[in-house]
Amino acid sequence: MGTFSKLCDLIMEASASNYTAKRTNTINKATPHHVAGCLTAEQIARIFQNPNRKASANYGIGIDGKIVGIVPEESRAWTSSSPSNDHQAITIEVANDQVGGEWHISDLCIERLIDLIVEIRLRTKREVYVYDGTPNGTMTRHNMFAATTCPGSYLQGKLPYITEEINKRIKEGIAPVEVPTVQAPTKRNVGEEVTVTGIYVASNSTKRLNPARTKGKITKIIAGAKNPYLLDNGNLGWTNDGCIVDSAITAPTTNTSVTTYTVKSGDCLSEIGAKLGVNWKEIASLNGIHSPYTIYKGQKLKIPTATAAPAKTNLKSNEQICKEVWQGKWGNGGDRAYRLTQAGYDANLIQSMVNKGIGR
Ligand SMILES: [Zn+2]
User: Fold this and answer.
1) Taking the model in full, what pTM does it have?
2) How far is the CA of 127 from the centre of ligand 1 (A)?
3) What is the C-alpha to C-alpha distance for residues 75 and 60, in angstroms, rounded to an integer?
4) What is the CA(105)–ligand 1 centre distance, in A?
5) How close is the Cα of 35 to the center of ligand 1, in Å?
6) What CA–CA distance (Å, rounded) separates 267 from 119?
7) 43 vs 280: CA distance, rounded Å
């Protein structure tokens, strides 16, 4: 079997009497067609298995959104009424979701078309496409070569957008991987008081606990985590920007004493701030560092000494408390909620964890 895109959902090769086994040019163009029918990927491929059809395409995209491999990429499909074009092109038959009129094509099929062409391009030529409305471009149409309605007015009208979108993704795909010196700072800062509607059991957990709205202070930030903010609301839990409904920045530290921190490889300001419990923007301003906040290894940073009270550290973990609830150590109902609250725990949070069987 020849080469087909890894995006194919199925491979149903055309009859060998419907295409030329070896293309004479390298792949340089893409030519999207419409099938003029509401066909699934399988139905499209079946057409070209009939040896009398004398037509084919490299790929088909069905109304079901599936991509079918039909003519291997090494071979020249008979699709666009132009040997010269098809020896250079990957040709793709796309299903309509409406027959006649503008020959509409679903957004799903357009998306799959873009995905497919990008995948092929990044594997082969690694260059953007040119759609200039002429056969000289690298994005071409059937009706440039024959009197046909193909690719239909809808797909034809979409081609500038499709080409632009494909090129955007190709550029991203061939861009050298940059090693960021500074991680994008998260939206919030250590020390910020926030009101949230959701708390998670861990920084990367999707397991959401649903306490009533609760207020707390951000005590630590792990940039890049699903729930980057460690919230202390008398208890600890993780939250994210989507859960934060309100915030207030606490007064900046007034203490003028400073300590020094030496930047290590891979450090960024927001992480250093999180690690030291200091708003990273204060570190930036104290050291005269401005956007894009570049720092370098070995740099000595002045760190404002936080005056905020240290976070409570004497509380047990939520999980431990759940265990104790199951052991009967915290009583029941309103009594339990009262005792938990008095001891500095979030009774709603603990209850929702217990309800999930945590600590059992
Ligand atoms: Zn066509």
Assistant:
1) 0.52
2) 24
3) 15
4) 14
5) 7
6) 35
7) 59
